[in-house]
Amino acid sequence: MYRLVAGRELRARAPQKAVSWFTSFNLSRSLSSLPFATVEVEELSGSRPAEVQNLVQGKWIGSSNWNTIVDPLNGEPFIKVAEVDENGIQPFVESLSKCPKHGLHNPFKAPERYLLYGDISAKAGHLLSLPKVSDFFARLIQRVAPKSYYQALGEVQVTAKFLENFSGDQVRFLARSFAVPGNHLGQQSHGFRWPYGPVAIITPFNFPLEIPVLQLMGALYMGNKPVLKVDSKVCIVMEQMMRLLHHCGLPIDDADFINSDGKTMNKLLLEGNPRMTLFTGSSRVADKLAVDLKGRIKLEDAGFDWKILGPDVNEVDYVAWVCDQDAYACSGQKCSAQSMLFIHEFTTDAMLEHMNKLLQIPGSKLLFGGKPLVNHSIPSIYGAIRPTAVYVPLEEVLKDKNFELVTREIFGPFQIVTEYKDDQLPMVLHALERMHAHLTAAVVSNDPLFLQARFNLQEVIGQSVNGTTYAGLRARTTGAPQNHWFGPAGDPRGAGIGTPEAIKLVWSCHREVIYDFGPVPKRWELPPST
Predict the structure, then answer these.
(1) How deeply is 251 buried, as exposed, middle or buried, from its count of CB atoms within 10 A (0-12, 13-18, 19+)?
(2) Which of 318, 340, 355, 435 is most buried by a 10 A CB count?
């Protein structure tokens, strides 16, 4: 258990405590395993399958119901997930019910826990940044998600930086209050950030580490007790991260971890009655949960994410590379993936000249998707098609009979490309206004006024609503680092991730406490009856 000591003692002992903890963690590359890990990434296979457990009320437990995850590389069963069915949710319901509405800590209750979580974050951030540990998680992510090593490593690095950001006193700074003078002597009103108490977190497969860690820790920082469900295909990553957090001092009964199908989790939400639920996933499920949970939900749902190329784009190779990464990296399976590209009109000669230069490279040829991948062993459940782009004229995009089809989010390596002229900006802005999912966007231009055209960058930003919008020559639609807000806009249910503003918005509510100590005015008399 964490014990608060006198302020001076805590400051005097903290450096020694940190040194002893870090030096006790031997991370020489000669070690074959990590002290928190229960799997060896290189040994994961059909012949040596891993097992993923559940955590509830401070205990890791199995299940009589095992869901087998197939290897994305060859289809062999290589992970066994202990999934809880509808008959097994009672321990999780009881665990949520044990947490009061005022949370595990708040500004008036157990404030030492803010310091505890600053300490946990410092240790976990340091540990996750060590090469042996970051390599372990990057390779584990790769085994279950369609990412290159550097994409997976980038996810680990963002998570480590997030934890470093909330070390020391930064957790208690999240609960910073304010005071307003009252109407008379002895009266003051104070605003506080207050936890919800029991909460739930549901996260998807495409970011197995970053999304669940950032939302889990945000919930814990503010004093909530979360139950976390990660998509079963990738849940092994977060199970190992939970064990790392426990190794770094996270009280084992502060958070629960459940593996289940959607129907079982829905029942848990209805019976466990969490005070707030964070859901990251499809719009269809998000809308259902919003009704089921009577609005007690924050969402980071689907995004039909657009990019506009301005008339002054000159670093064509760089911009094209970013477009490819935005649309097709991680097989296009990101909520922020580039879904529609508006290209300012360019001359045919210029495009053909660039294409002809590329085709002079030995072995090059012209291909652009629309066909399934061949000669591979990827299981059909994962989907495997060539990166694909479809051109649709802007006039056809805007037609009522086409718009819904054209703007449907395809969670894969697929995008729509269209073209616009100088005088067609109103048509582009009209298309943006009609879209319904406003997560990320990009306006690629280094000319704030778009002086070469009849409109400007400010106008595009001013007449759109996407919650995370990049602007400038290096603008992209993907990328969710720890240093800025990432989340949708235009929806009161919208959730953010990663920043102090996002954590306070999603994982706490406002509480006002008005102190009124008097004194009572001299010669006060009981007023006459009205």
Answers:
(1) middle
(2) 340
The order of strands in the sheet holding 187-194 is 178-181, 187-194, 509-516
pLDDT attached to residue 327: 67
Query: What's the pLDDT tens digit per position in 324-333?
Result: 677 666 544 5
294: its two tokens = 């009577």
| Cα separation, 162 vs 264, whole angstroms | 31
CA–CA dist 222, 404 (Å, integer) = 40
Distance CA 520, CA 514 (A): 16
Tell me the C-alpha distance between 452 and 492, whole Å.
37
Region 212-222: mean pLDDT is 97
CA 476 – CA 338 distance, rounded (Å): 8
Q: What is the pLDDT of residue 2?
A: 38
Helices and strands of the chain, counted as H and E runs: 17, 19
Is the pLDDT at 352 greater than 50? The verdict is no
User: Which residues is 80 bridged to in the sheet?
Assistant: 51, 68
Taking the CB of residue 484, how many other CB atoms lie within 10 A of it?
14
Examine the residue annotation and report whether 40 is marked as an active-site residue of this protein: no
Rounded CA-CA distance 218/516 in Å is 33
CA distances from residue 355 to 45, 294, 361, 366, 392 in whole angstroms, order as listed: 43, 54, 10, 9, 21
DSSP-derived secondary structure for 51-101? EE-EEETTEEE--S-EEEEEPTTT--EEEEEE---GGG-HHHHHHHHTS-T
Predicted confidence at residue 399, as pLDDT, reads: 81
The mean pLDDT value for 42-50 works out to 91
pTM summary value: 0.81
Question: Of the residues 235, 300, 330, 409, which is catalytic?
Answer: 300
Closest CA to 162 of 506, 438, 439, 502: 502
Q: Phi and psi of 86, rounded to 5°? A: -60, -25
Q: For residue 206, what pLDDT is reported?
A: 83
Which residues, listed in sequence order, are joined to residue 257 by a DSSP beta bridge? 55, 228
Q: DSSP labels for 7-20?
A: HHHHHHHHHHHHHH
Of 239, 248, 335, 409, the catalytic one is 335
Q: How far is CA 435 from CA 283, 449, 464, in A?
A: 13, 25, 10
Shortest CA distance to 471 belongs to which of 493, 494, 444? 444
> From CA 449, how far away is CA 341, in angstroms rounded?
20
Q: Could you report the per-residue pLDDT of 185-215, keeping only the tens digit for each?
A: 999 999 999 999 999 999 988 889 999 999 9
| pLDDT tens per residue across span 124-147 | 999 999 999 999 999 999 999 878
> Which token pair is 471?
């602007």
| Helix 112-129 and helix 131-144, axial crossing angle in degrees, nearest 10 | 80
From CA 258, how far away is CA 113, in angstroms rounded?
24
Strands 187-194 and 178-181: antiparallel
Q: Given the structure tokens 């995850």, which residue do they identify?
A: 69
pLDDT averaged over the chain?
80
